[in-house]
Amino acid sequence: MKRIDFNKDWEFQWGEPSNIPMMPAQKVKVDLPYDFMIGKDVSRDAAGGSGTGFYEGGTGSYTKMLEITEEECDRIHILSFDGCFGNTKVVVNGHMAFRHHYGYTPFEVELDRFLHVGSNRITVTAGNTNEPNSRWYSGAGLYRKVSLLTGEKVHIVPNGIYTYTKEIEGSALQVVETTVKNETESEKSVKLKVEIVEKKTGDVIAETVDFFVIEK
Length: 216
Hints:
The protein is built from no helices and 14 strands. With 216 residues, it is mainly β. A hairpin with a 2-residue loop joins strand 6 (87-92) and strand 7.
């Protein structure tokens, strides 16, 4: 899948967006990573105390528009988050798309069932109010990078390639396991080619080709 930088031109606001249309809110343009907790004042009464640098928690929201053409509706769109602290929810065009409750792990959100041709609103809200929740300063919100993954409906899933050395006796037996997903309405015949390339020279030192059918 193609990985696109999705870190520029987000709008940040404190709290959650209002459900009342046209309700005014103070918003600022930010680029990711953007830790919203580091900008708050410290307090000697902070629940985390010295372990978290006397910073208070809080809730913040990030919003970004995604433009989709009619041709792009036939492709897969996945948001890949390297991390968001703490309790996180992702809303796409007003629909709850995903929840994630651990700030230190990456996660992916499949967007397509919520998207339409034109402008699509993506809002990520992170709540770091349940303190103390760490032994150190954790930060809050989208403190790591975000990518947009796009590809065909028959595609290798994110992080879907796993390789390991099974045995070494003079030469090495390298095993490559690949997870391929079919999101079309019918079975698809697939050709999967795997190459092992020497990094310095670019020479192909091993390759294999497999043909198989994936059910819908």
